[in-house]
């Protein structure tokens, strides 16, 4: 199984006042949840044990995705789409998916289940979370068996962040996808209208 929460050290409760519901870390405040907490952890979110071992390898994933704008908006003063973050409402999001295929292999001597968790880390500088869970899938594999797992990550929904004003934005630039020990860089670029 996998933990559905972060286990904090005992001193965490002395650093976080009961009256503060802020998620993001500021000053001496360490933040909350796996998305924003920057301190030491007893067990991280998603930690788990198994009776067998698994490996995963990236089979297919794009390195760049063009995000089309709605035609009425542009980011640059000269009419080119050159910006740091696009409002999700200004992007054409229908059918905009990031297809990621991962080969999973049970390398142990026992049958077992494994939960693949896909995290995204957006570009720095957007008051963004450290990482956020964007997809997961449980697979059951017999000993020495292999299976390909396919994820369709909704670019506008899953890779967007909420800024300090509460506006949902899609940061342009390099996003890091993390699946176990795998790291994959995918760059989002604002494109013209369709």
Automatic annotation (TrEMBL):
<dbReference type="InterPro" id="IPR044993">
    <property type="entry name" value="BXL"/>
</dbReference>
<feature type="domain" description="Fibronectin type III-like">
    <location>
        <begin position="114"/>
        <end position="183"/>
    </location>
</feature>
<dbReference type="Pfam" id="PF14310">
    <property type="entry name" value="Fn3-like"/>
</dbReference>
<keyword id="KW-0378">Hydrolase</keyword>
<dbReference type="GO" id="GO:0046556">
    <property type="term" value="F:alpha-L-arabinofuranosidase activity"/>
</dbReference>
<dbReference type="GO" id="GO:0031222">
    <property type="term" value="P:arabinan catabolic process"/>
</dbReference>
<protein>
    <recommendedName>
        <fullName>Fibronectin type III-like domain-containing protein</fullName>
    </recommendedName>
</protein>
<dbReference type="GO" id="GO:0045493">
    <property type="term" value="P:xylan catabolic process"/>
</dbReference>
<dbReference type="GO" id="GO:0009044">
    <property type="term" value="F:xylan 1,4-beta-xylosidase activity"/>
</dbReference>
<dbReference type="InterPro" id="IPR026891">
    <property type="entry name" value="Fn3-like"/>
</dbReference>
<dbReference type="InterPro" id="IPR036881">
    <property type="entry name" value="Glyco_hydro_3_C_sf"/>
</dbReference>
<dbReference type="InterPro" id="IPR013783">
    <property type="entry name" value="Ig-like_fold"/>
</dbReference>
């Amino acid at each position: 199984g996998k933990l559905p929460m972060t286990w904090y050290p005992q001193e965490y409760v002395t650093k976080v006042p009961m009256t503060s519901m802020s998620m993001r870390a500021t000053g001496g405040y360490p933040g909350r949840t796996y998305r924003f907490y920057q301190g030491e952890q007893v067990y991280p979110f998603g930690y788990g044990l198994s009776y067998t071992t698994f490996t995963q390898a990236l089979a297919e994933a794009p390195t760049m995705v063009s995000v089309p704008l709605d035609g009425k908006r542009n980011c640059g003063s000269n009419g080119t789409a050159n910006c740091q973050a696009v409002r999700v409402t200004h992007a054409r999001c229908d059918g905009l998916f990031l297809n990621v295929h991962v080969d999973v292999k049970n390398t142990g001597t026992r049958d077992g289940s494994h939960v693949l968790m896909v995290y995204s880390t957006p570009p720095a500088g957007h008051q963004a979370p450290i990482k956020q869970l964007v997809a997961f899938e449980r697979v059951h594999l017999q000993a020495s068996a292999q299976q390909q797992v396919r994820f369709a990550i909704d670019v506008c929904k899953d890779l967007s962040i909420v800024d300090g004003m509460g506006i949902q934005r899609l940061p342009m630039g390099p996003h890091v996808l993390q699946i176990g020990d795998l790291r994959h860089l995918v760059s989002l670029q604002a494109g013209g209208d369709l």
